[in-house]
């Protein structure tokens, strides 16, 4: 059975992506949580993950003797191992587009990721309003998301980015939680897509587990002193 090493569900956006992908696709796997005690070289987190991968980061997928790290590499491996799940669109052009938007997420949206760290449990509308006012990079990232999602939803008829659930939706699921946490302004159609993503069984299972963690980590919480 596949084994997936992840960080805290409330905070670890990169861990969320492959976990949601596997869960929503109905692929059996064993979850191994590695708590974010700290990211210091001698932390338990680093000692555990460094034994698996040279990057010292989660997520990490283990399949027998094979270790796969990096979220996009994990997604590609899972898609190849389970072709019947159709995790990428069937059409070659649509598949190339789906890979393109995942790669854009993988390397971009730095403003949104930096100023609005994932925090599923929190409700930070007032903080989000200040971020929206002061951070042009966040406004630019959200504008790009809106344009991208509107185009894809229109082209493929919804309800998800490429019609049915794909890796692209799993990739943007943590972004949807950020938009909710910080109550960033969205057009009605995009807000509806965010709501649909958050109601997917795989996404909802992750979010429910994040709420149940009750594990406040001050180094992951730039806007709060306590939970």
Keywords:
Glutaredoxin; 10 helices; 227 residues
Give the helices and strands, then pairings.
Blueprint: E1 2-6, H1 13-25, E2 29-33, H2 44-50, E3 60-63, E4 66-69, H3 71-81, H4 92-107, H5 110-115, H6 125-134, H7 136-156, H8 167-181, H9 188-199, H10 201-213
Parallel strand pairs: 1-2
Antiparallel strand pairs: 1-3, 3-4
Helix pairs in contact: 1-3, 1-8, 1-10, 4-8, 8-9
What would your notes on this structure say?
The chain is α+β, with helices and mostly antiparallel strands. The protein has 2 domains: 2-85, Glutaredoxin (3-Layer(aba) Sandwich); 92-209, Glutathione S-transferase Yfyf (Class Pi), Chain A, domain 2 (Up-down Bundle). It contains 10 helices and 4 strands. It has helices spanning 13-25, 44-50, 71-81, 92-107, 110-115, 125-134, 136-156, 167-181, 188-199, 201-213, and strands spanning 2-6, 29-33, 60-63, 66-69. The protein has a 4-stranded mixed sheet, covered by helices on one side. Strand 1, helix 1 (13-25) and strand 2 (29-33) form a beta-alpha-beta unit. Helix 1 (13-25) packs across helix 8, helix 1 packs across helix 10 and helix 4 (92-107) runs parallel beside helix 8 (167-181). The longest helix is centred in the middle third of the chain and has 21 residues, at 136-156.
Give the mean pLDDT.
Answer: 97
The CATH topology of the largest domain, please?
Answer: Glutathione S-transferase Yfyf (Class Pi), Chain A, domain 2
Instruction: Count helical runs.
Output: 10
Q: Which term fits the overall shape? A: globular
Number of domains: 2
């Amino acid at each position: 059975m596949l084994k997936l090493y992840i960080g805290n569900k409330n905070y670890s956006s990169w861990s969320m992506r492959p976990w949601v992908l596997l869960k929503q696709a109905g692929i059996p796997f064993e979850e191994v949580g590695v708590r974010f005690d700290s990211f210091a070289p001698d932390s338990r987190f680093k000692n555990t993950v460094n034994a698996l991968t040279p990057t010292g980061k989660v997520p990490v997928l283990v399949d027998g003797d094979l270790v796969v790290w990096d979220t996009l590499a994990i997604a590609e491996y899972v898609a190849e191992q389970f072709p019947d799940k159709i995790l990428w669109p069937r059409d070659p052009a649509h598949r190339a587009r789906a890979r393109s938007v995942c790669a854009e997420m993988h390397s971009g949206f730095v403003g949104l990721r930096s100023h609005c760290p994932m925090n599923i449990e929190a409700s930070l509308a007032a903080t989000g309003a200040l971020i929206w006012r002061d951070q042009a990079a966040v406004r630019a990232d959200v504008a790009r998301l809106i344009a991208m999602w509107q185009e894809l939803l229109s082209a493929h008829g919804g309800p998800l980015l490429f019609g049915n659930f794909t890796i692209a939706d799993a990739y943007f699921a943590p972004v949807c939680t950020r938009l909710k946490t910080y109550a960033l302004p969205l057009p009605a159609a995009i807000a509806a897509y965010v709501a649909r993503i958050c109601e997917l069984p795989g996404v909802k299972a992750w979010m429910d587990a994040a709420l149940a963690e009750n594990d406040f980590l001050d180094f992951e919480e730039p806007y709060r002193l306590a939970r």
